[in-house]
Amino acid sequence: MISTMPARPVLAGDAHLPLYRRLCITIAGRIADGHWRPGDMIPSETDLARIYDVAPGTVRKAIETLATDGLIERRHGRGTFVRRSNFDHYMTRFFLFRDASGSELDPESRILSRQVVSGPAPVVSALGLPDGSDLIHLVRHRYWEDAPRLLEDIYLPLHRFGPILTCDIEEIGPLLYPAYERLCGELVCFMEEEITIVPASAQDAAVLGLHSADLIVAIDRWAKDAARQPIEWRRSRGETGRFRYKVKVE
Amino acid sequence: MISTMPARPVLAGDAHLPLYRRLCITIAGRIADGHWRPGDMIPSETDLARIYDVAPGTVRKAIETLATDGLIERRHGRGTFVRRSNFDHYMTRFFLFRDASGSELDPESRILSRQVVSGPAPVVSALGLPDGSDLIHLVRHRYWEDAPRLLEDIYLPLHRFGPILTCDIEEIGPLLYPAYERLCGELVCFMEEEITIVPASAQDAAVLGLHSADLIVAIDRWAKDAARQPIEWRRSRGETGRFRYKVKVE
DNA sequence: GAGTGGTCTAGACCACGAG
DNA sequence: TCGTGGTCTAGACCACTCA
User: Fold this and answer.
1) pTM to 2 decimal places
2) Is the peptide bond before B18 cis (omega within 30 degrees of 0)?
3) How many angstroms separate the first and last alpha carbons of chain B?
4) Fewest Cβ atoms nearer than 10 Å: which of A82, A113, A245, B218?
5) In the 3-class helix/strand/coil scheme, how is A110-152 assigned residue by residue?
């Protein structure tokens, strides 16, 4: 008879990686595959140590790494939770819209069109998809003080975001990332952006109330899932006068 | 006779702070006061544990914190080193200047003026100094392809940067932060910046070869020492067409 | 080979939050 | 009061760098 050792539960990643790294990957995978959802509390450090048969200190290091990566959030005395992303508010950080008293105004969102396109090629490759992949293309305007101030073209891989195309448009609501999560189970965890200043197209200028070829700010964004795969590409355009960006370095 | 316990060496910070935090503050202080200079190797983890009479794990956590803060740098198998800042190159990341083959071009720096001013008031308060403090004001242009492309007004507190005013101007060289370190012993460790798009002054427009009131990019920067005290404020202006900025979020 | 940081373990006690 | 994360300790062994 072969004696069966109690097997260490499977940890993702190459066996030559440090244990804590493999635990990171495993936990991130559990979040990416929806086993633990945003807002959920994940097992306590002692439980994780027991479950995966590693020392508490190793769990601790893995959890700390994931927390600084922004995937989870630790709350002293309560537990460790999968982080809820709220990146959709993020863009408003670039643009100044305040009422008379100086407090920030929330924009209104209107999706003007929603259709399947194949391409454009630069977007397909920005999303790391094979040539000719189908995309969902959304055109959205965001309004402050009853005027469109931010114009957005948004592209999503059709095979992951079908419900965004087929759902009642009212279901999407003012914020896209919560809608991705609610309707498609897709979670935005990371972003990269590139900011440039370019002449406005005739159409953009007309909507923004500018002259054609006036300069506007363009913000290109790659939104990524927990595995850092890009799942959305968008280009947002707005007036330069409202633009302000703050950076902290190191 | 009173028995004297071997005293734990003085750790900076309130006694109620965690040990590792106090160790962080202590080490950062040693760097800020010039005891350990940029590029120096600091004592090994085991030595620090012995010196400050704490467990190696506690030293480890302090060192890790300082490393993610960017104050020091760990090199496996070699040691832990005070980080050399090289922020002066940083601005070129915002602006695209490439030769025909696409590789980045280094700018040439020219300091056009160097004088003591008292004020302006907004700058004095940006630097956290008392009203009426004396500042050094530098005007610097940075050249790419033999034309001034980036115009800078730089303000420094006189009492910390005297040598910048009195030294031979050739001694300053093309990069300011290494000069601050070499001539004044001042080390830039952190920065904050704010980017806006504004109409060019008549003078800036003339230098940049634009029309008056054409839009330009303005980057305001607060440079800070190891203790996060602001020690330099500058405003840099450049052409919008050359501007590009990349951000990674979380 | 000597010295450094990197990983992993094991366990004690503290501080916080909620019932 | 209980369970959580936060701090601190102590020590083993590995992996990298350099002389």
Assistant:
1) 0.74
2) no
3) 59
4) A113
5) EEEEEEEEECCHHHHHHCCCCCCCEEEEEEEEEEECCEEEEEE
Tokens linked to B245: 């900025």
Give the pLDDT score at A144: 86
Q: How far apart are the first and last CA of chain A?
A: 59
Task: Please report where in the chains the tokens 């160790």 appear, as a residue.
Answer: B23
Among A189, A240, A246, the residue with its CB nearest the CB of B194 is A246
> Residue A87: what pLDDT?
64
CATH assignment of B87-242? Answer: 3.40.1410.10
Helix or strand run (H / E) with residue A61 = helix A56-69
Tell if the CB–CB gap between B250 and A194 is shorter than 8 Å. no
As a whole number of angstroms, the distance between CA A220 and CA A153 comes to 10
| 3-class state of residue B213 by DSSP | coil
Tokens describing residue B65: 């914190």
Length, in residues, of chain A? 250
* Portions of chain A given CATH number 3.40.1410.10: 87-242
E strands, chain B, are 41-42, 72-75, 79-82, 108-118, 134-144, 147-157, 190-199, 215-224, 230-239, 244-249
3-state helix, strand, coil in chain B (%, to 5): 30, 35, 35
Q: CATH 1.10.10.10 occupies which residues in chain B?
A: 19-82
What is the Cα–Cα distance from B160 to B186, expressed in whole angstroms? Answer: 8
C-alpha closest to that of B129 among B234, B231, B235, B236 = B231
Using 50, 70 and 90 to split pLDDT, how confident is the model at A2? Answer: very low
Query: Cα(B65)–Cα(B79) distance, rounded to whole angstroms?
Result: 16
Distance in angstroms (rounded) separating the CA atoms of residues A51 and B125 = 55
Q: Which CATH architecture has domain A19-82?
A: Orthogonal Bundle (1.10)
CB < 8 Å to B240, chain A = 197, 215
Listed in sequence order, the residues at least 6 apart from B175 whose beta carbon sits closer than 8 Å to its beta carbon are B88, B89, B109
Nearest C-alpha in A relative to B83: A250
Contact A137, A233 (CB under 8 A): no
For chain B of 250 residues, list the mean pLDDT of each consecutive stretch of 10.
48 80 89 85 91 90 88 90 71 64 76 92 92 94 90 96 95 88 84 89 96 92 86 94 72
pLDDT for residue B90:
62
Instruction: Express each pLDDT in A82-92 by its tens digit.
Output: 887 666 556 55
Chain B: nearest CA to A175, how far in angstroms?
18
